[in-house]
Amino acid sequence: TPVIGVFALQGDVREHLTMLERSGARAVKVRRPTELDALDGIVVPGGESTTMDKLARAFDLFDPLRAALRDGLPAFGTCAGMIMLADRIEGGTADQETLGGLDVVVRRNAFGRQVDSFEADLDVEGLDEGFHAMFIRAPWVEKVGRDVRVVATVSSGAAMGRIVAVRQANLLATSFHPEITGDHRFHQLFVDQVRGAGTRAPR
Ligand code: GLN
């Protein structure tokens, strides 16, 4: 059984723990750098990326987690978590840093104040049937590097064509919150990816 951590300093941690367990993983909260060693994968939840950034640094989790990601630890970021995994952000605060690893530009709060939150049905690469997605002050992916695979885009409305799910090597990220809709297929994709990656050698 793969052990998957959830970054637990801020964000919707509980929802992710539930979905990961439902997808056949053992899910554990991560607050300390030493807790990274036991993991086969990690989820960075939705929440507030500026706060996550600050807390990660305050709790000495920022550099070790960044190193683990560079080292190939599989990671799944949702919404604020997507922002944390992005190499570059637009609309960040002046001193905001990200863990990075995903060769993308992500725009924070991209869908605008008018559409603070909304729902959309998405076609997702790797899923047989559509996925009902919830967006809350969500980012979108504005630019993707060569090695990034687009997994889902918005299929109608003003934001049609906007990229909302991507994958690159060990990293998976969504603009929306698959942890809150009761549909665990996205978490299942991630858990299967972690299984495929195998257990990491102890560092
Ligand atoms: N707007 C938030 C941020 O910039 C993300 C919102 C969310 O995770 N629901 O971090």
UniProtKB/TrEMBL annotation:
Catalytic activity: aldehydo-D-ribose 5-phosphate + D-glyceraldehyde 3-phosphate + L-glutamine = pyridoxal 5'-phosphate + L-glutamate + phosphate + 3 H2O + H(+); L-glutamine + H2O = L-glutamate + NH4(+)
UniProt KW Flavoprotein keyword: no
Enzyme nomenclature, EC number: 4.3.3.6, 3.5.1.2
Residues holding L-glutamine: G47, E48, S49, R108, I136, R137
Domain of life assignment: Bacteria
InterPro entries registered for this protein in UniProt: PdxT/SNO, PdxT/SNO_CS
Keyword terms: Glutamine amidotransferase, Hydrolase, Lyase, Pyridoxal phosphate
Molecular function as annotated in GO: glutaminase activity; pyridoxal 5'-phosphate synthase (glutamine hydrolysing) activity
Classification via NCBIfam families: PLP_synth_Pdx2
Function according to Swiss-Prot or TrEMBL: Catalyzes the hydrolysis of glutamine to glutamate and ammonia as part of the biosynthesis of pyridoxal 5'-phosphate. The resulting ammonia molecule is channeled to the active site of PdxS.
Family listed: Belongs to the glutaminase PdxT/SNO family.
Subunit structure: In the presence of PdxS, forms a dodecamer of heterodimers. Only shows activity in the heterodimer.
Protein's UniProt name: Pyridoxal 5'-phosphate synthase subunit PdxT
Biological classification of the source: Bacteria, Bacillati, Actinomycetota, Actinomycetes, Propionibacteriales
Gene name of this polypeptide: pdxT
